[in-house]
Specification:
Chain B: InterPro entries: WD40/YVTN_repeat-like_dom_sf, WD40_repeat_CS, WD40_repeat_dom_sf, WD40_rpt. The structure holds two protein chains of two kinds. Chain A contains 30 helices and three strands. Chain A is an all-alpha fold. In chain A, strands 1-2-3 form a three-stranded antiparallel β-sheet, with no helix packed on it. The chains are: A mainly alpha, B mainly beta.
Chain lengths: 639, 389
């Protein structure tokens, strides 16, 4: 057996007392736990009669996160339709924009949760929302990094710019603090002033730094030249322009010149009289000790990493990242003993170990939404090709199946899951087949929607099963017409026969047909079963008779028997129906037809004598709309 | 498409309906109601797209529908109609018919010691004002009520039990029941005239019922020939009451002339799956809107009074020419409707997709003035305030 990656978490079920034996059953998204009747020797007391439902994923029931599921479903479907055969160069911008769409959905959700957390008076809800916000924040952080490193995979130069954006986006508290400082009466004297300035420097936002410094310079006319010098240094720092004509080497040369200039300023003590400016100067040189002195402004090791790269290695390549990442993490975290799961995930990403990222995320997060969608996107980028699991299909499909199965357990989100199953080539269909049959069908409208899903995928077995459920339900409620419609839709001949029998029984009992609107309009559906054909034809006979088209009626009646369309049990009724035609003044049956009629009667009586010579069959009374002739009269006339 | 607003609402929407605007002031529709389905707790909700809300919602940019109030609804909301400005009738999958009342009370918040203007707050609430439980039922079970139509105070409902029930909003009891009105499920109902209603059923029939007659059988049955395709929705032309449009399971749009013939006047391929709703534009009936299980919302436009070929009428993107399957039967009426004049000189009928790509069913739509609202199984509400009509 393989080792587990992490120790499983223990869930305590409050209602269960110690020492009881538990049984359980797996469900697609939960487990059912119950107390067994087994009793340890000496134990007493009655068992608990509850079944406990234990769920790992509660997020699916959050109304706000439902928006995430619905919106991302739409993006997912769009991603699947990107054509495989396009050259990868033209696909990459599409993948990046899809990745951005996913992230903006996460952001929207986060903002809404944040708003609820702030505005609600319910503390429990506020905590819950707060937790979800922090999870989404982490998810977005990881996703964004994966987008930069794997999907966009920017070349040297641009790579650092993307990483800077990544850090700026996730360290937005600087702007909040800056706003506070700037709105105060005298910003330059605010106690957070220098924190804001240094934070801006650490993020490489030098324009903002210069604007802030002007305020300070105005307060210190004596030091104006020093501020002027710093301003020049800041304004001269080169940034790579991916759209420009400059080559990376040219940029590198220019950057080195600037770096040397900063170094000179530090060496000749240009800023020695102002510790703040000297600090900035040291940061611009990328001095590790200075950076590490400002851990609380950096906040995280990956901010440290990006700042260090910005001021020491602006032309870093993707393949070199892992080296810097590892060392920055070690340097930054030395005081703290263990890195958190998020640290490990990000480090794995910097190390380009996609599978490790996905694995760690699967362990750390309590739902499959993130890993399923990210893995799917990475798979489309052809980054996961070589990896096959030793169970199930590949990683992408495995995760999508897990996510979709979770959705299917939800009473309302099951519709989304269908599209996910569709895009799992190996097992998706089997999963869908098993799940779709178990969707509860409260109304015909819902049944129609489920049927549409099945019919679009040629799942004839499931179509039959659903129609049968609906037909049985209609039958139970004595809605023969509906029941027949459902069995016609399922092309279920056996069931159609059964219902036709019921119609004929009703006719024999009441003497009139019910549900004429349906029977008169069977059309080609009539051919589904022999009994249904007979029902339709027999009704046609009544119609012809009612319209006084006796000859056609008689011909049809006779053919029902001679062509063996009518079941023999019904022949007596048919023969009875023939009587009024025989009694008409004009001759309706030709001689040949009369012979055939007699022959039918003989056939019937002989078979009746064999089967029921002794027992009196219940008298079959037929009071059809056109005649009231009890059974015995026909016997009298015939004999 | 830029003018379309989408809002995710965390519930699958089964019905959307604009609150009627009073004729006296030429207002734009501002408030609509939605009903949800297939949720553990279904709800009926009232939304506003008005910008001058004084309920203190500072977020929500211009045009985003804002929730005013909501109320729990037992069972799926299978249909929903405004009885008048404040009352809503719903049809439930439990067989119940409910009237909800939407209250808007202006409350003046008195700030005794403040020198600012007192803030006027509109307090929006919704409550049940009348309930007919088990209006539709089987002998020992509930039957879903599938459709409701009302012309205040009269309310007519239909259901899977094949019954037609007539209520009055001011009476507790049932006014009239037609048992066994249909052997199959009745999917929708609409008024043809004040005393006549139209129902469509799951075996492709359109039935006319005249309430002046005591008989419990339809005064006329029209049907699709042959293939018994279930019909899901029906709407009547607002001015020419003999013209009726229906939508069926195969996504086909049928236009009927109930005065003549028992078969549809024309059949048009519209959607690839069930058409859930069809609506003529109430004031500009040359325009028609349909929505479907296939996730699309179509705008149909027929050019009535111009003989201009359609390619001169301005380019609208993604438009296609629909096939008109049947030729007209010698139209000699003096005033012929565009929907019946269809000698299908090609291009008389233009259709436009109104939603961006959508995969899940559009269950309901409503159009009033230049405003259109629709709701989907993707748990989104779309509002378009600039429908080109």
């Amino acid at each position: 057996m393989e080792e587990v990656d992490v120790e499983p978490t223990i869930t305590n079920i409050p209602a269960i007392s110690d020492g009881k034996h538990m049984g359980f059953a797996w469900g697609p998204g939960d487990i059912l736990v119950y107390e067994t009747r087994y009793k340890a020797s000496g134990a007493s007391g009655s068992g608990c009669s509850f079944i406990h439902e234990i769920r790992k994923d509660e997020d699916i029931y959050s109304p706000i996160l439902r928006k995430l599921f619905n919106e991302s479903h739409h993006i997912f479907v769009g991603l699947q339709t990107i054509r495989e055969d396009l050259p990868s160069k033209s696909k990459k911008p599409q993948f990046v924009s899809i990745s951005k769409n996913y992230r903006s959905v996460i952001r929207a959700c986060m903002e809404e949760l944040q708003q609820v957390a702030v505005s609600t008076k319910n503390t429990e809800l506020a905590t819950q929302c707060g937790n979800q916000v922090s999870i989404l924040l982490a998810i977005e952080l990881i996703w964004n990094l994966c987008e930069v490193l794997f999907i966009d995979a920017a070349p040297a130069g641009s790579l650092l710019l993307h990483l800077l954006d990544w850090v700026r986006l996730h360290k937005a508290d600087v702007d909040e603090k800056a706003r506070e400082v700037l709105q105060s009466e005298s910003p330059a004297e605010h106690r957070d002033y220098w924190d804001v300035v240094v934070s801006y420097v650490l993020q490489g936002r030098l324009e903002e730094v210069r604007q802030m410094l002007v305020k300070q310079a105005n307060l210190q006319p004596a030091a104006r030249s020093m501020y002027k010098q710093m301003d020049t240094l800041l304004s001269k720092m080169p940034f790579y322009n991916p759209g420009g004509t400059q080559t990376l080497t040219e940029f590198d040369v220019k950057w080195r010149h600037w770096h040397e200039e900063v170094d000179r300023c530090l060496q000749d003590n240009s800023f020695a009289s102002n510790r703040h400016l000297e600090l900035i100067c040291k940061i611009l040189l990328g001095d590790e000790d200075t950076l590490l002195d400002h851990k609380e402004l950096l906040g995280t090791w990956y901010h440290f990493l990006v700042t260090r790269l910005l001021f020491c290695h602006p032309t870093v390549k993707l393949t070199e990242l892992h080296y810097y990442a590892q060392s920055c993490m070690t340097m930054f975290l030395d005081s703290r003993s263990v890195p958190e799961p998020l640290d490990n995930i990000l480090l794995a990403a910097f190390e380009f170990d996609i599978h490790q990222v996905i694995k760690e995320c699967s362990i750390a997060l309590n739902n499959w939404w993130f890993v399923a969608h990210l893995t799917d996107l990475l798979d489309h980028c052809k980054l996961l090709q070589s990896h096959n699991l030793h169970f199930g299909s590949n990683l992408r499909e495995f995760l999508l199946l897990e996510y979709a199965s979770g959705l299917f357990t939800h009473h309302s989100l099951w519709q989304l899951a269908v599209d996910y199953f569709d895009h799992c080539p190996e097992f998706g269909r089997v999963y869908l087949e098993l799940q779709i049959e178990r969707v509860p069908l409260e109304t015909e409208r819902k049944a129609l929607k489920v049927l549409r899903v099945c019919e679009q995928r040629q799942m004839s077995e499931q179509v039959r099963s659903i129609c049968k459920i609906m037909a049985m339900r209609a039958l139970r409620n004595n809605r023969l017409g509906s029941a027949l419609s459902w069995s016609i839709r399922a092309k279920d001949a056996a069931f159609a026969t059964l219902i036709s029998e019921r119609f004929l029984q009703d006719y024999c009992a009441k003497g009139t047909f019910s549900d004429l609107d349906l029977i008169d309009n069977l059309g080609p559906a009539m051919l589904l079963s022999d009994r249904l054909t007979f029902l339709g034809k027999y009704r046609e006979f009544h119609k012809l008779y009612g319209e006084k088209r006796f000859r056609e009626a008689a011909k049809l009646l006779l053919s029902l028997m001679t062509a063996k369309i009518a079941p023999q049990s019904f022949w007596m009724t048919l023969l009875t129906d023939a009587l009024p035609l025989l009694e008409q003044k004009e001759v309706i049956f030709t001689a040949d037809q009369t012979y055939e009629l007699m022959f039918c009667l003989e056939e019937l009586t002989s078979s009746l004598n064999i089967t029921a010579s002794s027992t009196d069959r219940p008298m079959q009374v037929c009071m059809s709309s056109h005649g009231l002739i009890p059974f015995h009269t026909i016997r009298l006339k015939a004999l | 498409m830029e003018s379309i607003n989408a809002k995710y609402v965390s519930q699958k929407i089964s019905k959307t309906k604009w609150r009627p605007v009073s004729h006296s002031d030429l207002q734009l529709p501002e408030i609509f109601a939605t009903g949800s389905w297939d949720n553990e707790d279904n709800r009926i909700s009232i939304w506003s797209i008005g910008s001058n809300l004084s309920t203190g919602m500072e977020d929500g940019f211009e045009g985003d529908p804002q929730l005013l109030c909501e109320h729990k609804h037992d069972g799926d909301v299978l249909d929903l109609q405004f009885l008048d400005q404040d009352r809503i009738v719903t049809a439930s999958s439990t067989g119940a018919v409910t009237i909800f009342r939407h209250h808007q009370n202006s409350q003046v918040l008195a700030f005794e010691f403040l020198l600012v203007d007192p803030e006027v707050l509109l307090v929006q609430t919704i409550s049940v004002s009348q309930l007919w439980a088990r209006a539709h039922r089987y002998p020992c079970d509930n039957a879903p009520c599938t459709g409701v139509v009302c012309s205040s105070p009269e309310i007519v409902t239909v259901g899977e039990d094949g019954r037609i029930v007539v209520f009055r909003a001011d009476q507790e009891g049932v006014v009239r029941v037609i048992e066994n009105a249909d052997s199959s499920t009745i999917h929708a109902v609409t008024y043809l005239r004040t005393t006549e209603i139209l129902t469509v059923n799951s075996i492709g029939q359109l039935k006319l019922w005249d309430f002046r007659q005591q008989s419990n059988s339809p005064s006329q049955i029209l049907s699709l020939s042959g293939d018994r395709v279930p019909l899901h929705c029906v709407d009547r032309h607002p001015n020419q009451q003999h013209i009726v449009a229906t939508g069926g399971q195969d996504g086909m749009l049928c236009v009927w002339d109930v005065r003549q013939g028992n078969t549809p006047f024309s059949l048009m391929e519209a959607h690839t799956a069930e058409m859930w709703e069809v609506h003529f534009h109430p004031t500009n009936p040359d325009h028609l809107f349909t929505c479907s299980e296939d996730g699309s919302l179509l705008h149909w436009e027929t050019s009535s009074h111009s003989d201009m070929p359609s390619f001169l009428q301005g380019g609208r993107n993604s438009s296609m020419v629909s096939r008109s399957a049947m030729a007209p039967a010698g139209g000699k009426q003096p005033l012929i409707s565009a929907w019946l004049s269809g000698d299908s000189s090609k291009g008389r009928l233009e259709t436009t997709h109104m939603l961006p790509s959508q995969t899940l069913s559009v269950n309901s739509l409503d159009v009033l003035g230049p405003c259109l609202v629709c709701g989907t199984d993707g748990e989104a509400i779309f509002v378009n305030r600039q429908v080109p009509v």
